[in-house]
Amino acid sequence: MNRFVAAERALRSAAPHRLVDAVSEVLCDGYGAQSVQLYLADYGLATLQPVRAAADPPEPLSAHGSPAGRAFGSQQPFLERLRDERQVRLHLPVTVRGDRLGVLSLTMPGADQAEECLDELADVAQVLGHEVVIADRDTDVYLRARRADRMTLAAEMQWQLLPGRSCTGPEYSLGAQLEPAYAIFGDNFDWSATADRLMLYITNGMGEGTEAALLTNLGINALRNARRAGLSIEDQAALADQALYAHYRGDAYLSVLLIDLDLRTGQLRVIDAGSPQMLRLRGRTVTPVDLEAQLPLGMFEETDYVPHEIELLPGDRILFVSDGVYAVVAPGGERYGERALARAIVSTSLLPAAEVPRALLRELAGHRGTPVPDDDALVVCLDWIGPGEAT
């Protein structure tokens, strides 16, 4: 039997909590690996956390300054030469449809052996990623491994609501990040793609703690319910507005940007129902996208919503940010504001979409002067590559 097929079968048949054991066995037996370790990116995208399969597991690694971090950031295999020059450590990105989960690191007896089967090993890492996503339904092993700190209940609710932190298609690339990762309240994002459309929500629920998380959960699920019924974004907004008003009677509401992107044309339909802002990077110029401000969802009964239409050009980068980004105040009282945000956007223009939100939030932390924000901060980056054809 082909060794890759054997590895794939072993992973697909392994118990959900034994994926690391299974991949270690097949890589050692079939490819000559001497040790294998899976690292998963923590919720803050700062460290790569080892999945505790070994009796004496390694320490977490930097997601930016380590050899494994280089593979994670570049999304390319990285070959690390060890002190014993006969040995190398191969770091392979573990990614599922653009969502960067972590890195599979394996020690090989030599560079020639690692390079000879590099393509097959990269494919094994991809299969492992798919199996981890499926296994999350049945075990907490990988969700626990991702945690570098204790998570609040509100944050637990919000992370379970998210679709992922990045995804890609032939026409677009998306990346998103929330902070404080382990104590977020009401900010959230959601997306869904078909052959010809990408729908995206950027939300900011009022309040703090579990109350904000509950509000956001109700709003997102109301929007999903309307979207899955095949309704337009204006009807999605109207039905979610009714659901929130029926529950809170206007005492709590959800700020949201609803985005509907036609993947065949680059035509963008946007409803601005609240505080999240939208900016466009075209070339080296950052421009705030002026939208007609409409009422947040749930503020009043039976509100009508009207989309604003925008045409994207190939190469455009669209940034969506919550008020926890553009309204941050430095210790001296200076607001972060549009100019500072524009400079940060230009300075990160060469990064892929998946890397941009984390880079902007690091820049924001420098302005704020403290590592932990007082309010939720959300950044979503959308790169428009160019029109595709529905299949």
From TrEMBL:
<protein>
    <submittedName>
        <fullName>Magnesium or manganese-dependent protein phosphatase</fullName>
    </submittedName>
</protein>
<dbReference type="InterPro" id="IPR001932">
    <property type="entry name" value="PPM-type_phosphatase-like_dom"/>
</dbReference>
<dbReference type="Pfam" id="PF07228">
    <property type="entry name" value="SpoIIE"/>
</dbReference>
<dbReference type="GO" id="GO:0016791">
    <property type="term" value="F:phosphatase activity"/>
</dbReference>
<keyword id="KW-0378">Hydrolase</keyword>
<dbReference type="InterPro" id="IPR036457">
    <property type="entry name" value="PPM-type-like_dom_sf"/>
</dbReference>
<dbReference type="InterPro" id="IPR052016">
    <property type="entry name" value="Bact_Sigma-Reg"/>
</dbReference>
<feature type="domain" description="PPM-type phosphatase">
    <location>
        <begin position="171"/>
        <end position="384"/>
    </location>
</feature>
